[in-house]
Amino acid sequence: MPNSASAKKRQRQSEARKVRNHAVKAAVRTQVKKVRKAVAAGDVEASEAEFKTAAKKLDKAAARGILHANKAARTKSRLSKAIKAAKSAG
């Protein structure tokens, strides 16, 4: 338990950031799932449109420090690779 006023404030700030970061991570995961679902369905146009949104969300999360920059880049790379494979297969 925090005793000083500054420690109490720090705890409030930490909790607010945790809630905000969780919301951003959840939105990113949802968008990535949408891309994977479109790729699995073989819908190239939809997967490309969803990928644009996912890439933007991943980049924003990485810029804010919510996700590690390498994780964002790796996820974008894997999604892009899956879309290219779906294009060549279809």
Overview of this protein structure:
This protein has 3 helices and no strands. The N and C termini lie far apart (59 Å). Helix 1 packs antiparallel against helix 2, helix 1 runs parallel beside helix 3 and helix 2 runs antiparallel to helix 3. It is elongated and about 65 Å long.
Write the layout of secondary structure elements.
Layout (H helix, E strand, L loop, with lengths): L4 H37 L2 H21 L4 H21 L1
Helix pairs in contact: 1-2, 1-3, 2-3
Name some characteristics of this structure.
elongated, mainly alpha
Quaternary state of the chains: single chain
What is the approximate shape?
elongated
How is the main sheet built? none
How many H/I helical runs? 3
Short description:
By secondary structure, the protein is an all-alpha fold. The chain is 88% helix and 0% strand.
